[in-house]
Amino acid sequence: MLRRLHLHSTHKTIPAPRLTSLFFLFLSLSNHGNFVKAHVFIYAGCSQEKYEPNSPFEGNHNSLLSSVFSSSSQASYNSFAIGNGSSTPPEGICYGLYQCRGDLRTADCSRCIESAVNQISLVCPYSYGAALQLEGCYVRYEHIDFLGRLDTSLRYKKCSRSVNTDVEFFKRRDDVLADLTVAMGFKVSSSGSVEGYAQCLGDLSSSDCSACLAAAVAQLKNLCGSAAAADVYLGQCYARYWASGYYDRSSDSSSEDDVGKTVAIIVGVLAGVAILIVFLSICRRAMD
């Protein structure tokens, strides 16, 4: 990938959105009450290079995000090349994809993608490339063609507390991870007290999916060692395992991500200010 995406998975300063984007986001928050909890932020990556407002790339970028949202009501995965094969200059072409977790219903997939599309322009304003992973879905766009190209770079990891002495747990965990390495698309696995799932992006070939999942499982073991639960996200796949009931007992399952909180708070405050301004404007006109 020519343009490096700088990853963010903790607090990030987010610039104020334009008014139209603000109302779109506010409506989304209002329609999906438990917005942050339902669509937990995992990580985001933004290119350092920025495009200019009203540039050819901005138009194609907006068209791509619109297509992503529209398509998500019909399919859990799709990829796009907007401006390719036309008179658009190379720097104006926008490639992108989205994917939902394989166990989401179509309606839930569409809502998750709506959340991701809303957030990606907030977290990565005017970026030539961006990727955003939520708990249930993923969106990425670039101005270079990245589709179908294997990428096993580490994007995010999370390791829980250790369970050093539980021999039976590690045997079960290894059984689950071995099963997940042969996943094609989305796969759920369990062995005794251990559960897990894994998924590749839809643009990968079968052989590249296998290679990506093998790398993800290796990272789980190397980076998280004896953790009772662990998540690893690579460029084009992810894998997770946990002890049965772990996420029910853990505060992690009910706590919002810090960036998700930041987005929700900023949008809520700005939306309130915007509504107040509109209300005062209407009152002033009525008095004139």
UniProtKB/TrEMBL annotation:
<keyword id="KW-1015">Disulfide bond</keyword>
<dbReference type="InterPro" id="IPR051378">
    <property type="entry name" value="Cell2Cell_Antifungal"/>
</dbReference>
<comment type="similarity">
    <text>Belongs to the cysteine-rich repeat secretory protein family. Plasmodesmata-located proteins (PDLD) subfamily.</text>
</comment>
<keyword id="KW-0965">Cell junction</keyword>
<keyword id="KW-0677">Repeat</keyword>
<dbReference type="InterPro" id="IPR002902">
    <property type="entry name" value="GNK2"/>
</dbReference>
<keyword id="KW-0732">Signal</keyword>
<keyword id="KW-1133">Transmembrane helix</keyword>
<feature type="transmembrane region" description="Helical">
    <location>
        <begin position="263"/>
        <end position="283"/>
    </location>
</feature>
<keyword id="KW-0945">Host-virus interaction</keyword>
<dbReference type="InterPro" id="IPR038408">
    <property type="entry name" value="GNK2_sf"/>
</dbReference>
<keyword id="KW-0812">Transmembrane</keyword>
<feature type="domain" description="Gnk2-homologous">
    <location>
        <begin position="147"/>
        <end position="246"/>
    </location>
</feature>
<keyword id="KW-0472">Membrane</keyword>
<dbReference type="Pfam" id="PF01657">
    <property type="entry name" value="Stress-antifung"/>
</dbReference>
<protein>
    <recommendedName>
        <fullName>Gnk2-homologous domain-containing protein</fullName>
    </recommendedName>
</protein>
<feature type="domain" description="Gnk2-homologous">
    <location>
        <begin position="39"/>
        <end position="146"/>
    </location>
</feature>
